[in-house]
Backbone:
């Protein structure tokens, strides 16, 4: 019999990112970064208060992942929850970063005792999730992500996967509404662990 499968995002699920990104923008680029509702658009101002164009922000985000990943910190209780879940299930970290940063992400998670397969992706996560289901043939699967768009993607491509919406950054969570296509919203890994294990016991989502 196959094991269940947990497919989890990384940034703002396992590791804090936006607060460290914002601190780096302030320290190095003299920019004020205040994302509203989890979105980066229209979130950045120059020191004089003028808007900072989105098309100039995205290269800075790439620069953060290129040189500043060591700034990121572990979400409370994430490592312990994954360790407990991994006793009964396979775990894959499905992260939307460029493939060139794969080794850095693996090393970054390893420093916190999180040693699971890492898959890099661009765009919606439904297609790579479907590929993982085909590969693992799990008895049940749960997907965890902070972005509603990815839950919608999973709903289209892998409807049998349970979907948990999690926003682990406390400065963002109150402004982010529950994802319409998620089955639940839990922002704390202690509670999420129990929910995930219960969904494994339920079997595939109907």
Residues:
């Amino acid at each position: 019999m196959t094991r269940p499968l947990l497919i989890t995002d990384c940034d703002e699920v396992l590791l804090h990112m936006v607060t460290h990104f914002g601190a780096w923008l302030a320290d190095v680029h003299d920019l004020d970064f205040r994302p509203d509702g989890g979105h980066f658009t229209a979130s950045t101002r120059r020191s004089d208060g003028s808007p900072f164009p989105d098309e100039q922000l995205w290269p800075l985000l790439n620069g953060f992942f290129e040189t500043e990943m060591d700034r990121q910190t572990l979400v409370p209780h994430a490592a312990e929850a994954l360790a407990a879940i991994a006793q009964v299930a396979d775990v894959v970290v499905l992260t939307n970063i460029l493939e060139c940063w794969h080794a850095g992400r693996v090393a970054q998670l390893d420093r916190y005792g999180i040693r699971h397969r890492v898959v890099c992706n661009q765009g919606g996560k439904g297609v790579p999730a479907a590929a993982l289901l085909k590969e693992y043939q799990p008895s049940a699967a749960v997907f965890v992500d902070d972005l509603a768009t990815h839950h919608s993607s999973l709903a289209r491509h892998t409807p049998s996967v349970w979907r948990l919406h999690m926003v682990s950054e406390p400065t963002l969570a109150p402004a982010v509404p529950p994802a319409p296509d998620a089955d639940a919203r839990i922002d704390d890994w202690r509670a999420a662990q129990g929910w995930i294990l219960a969904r494994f016991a339920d079997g595939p989502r109907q």
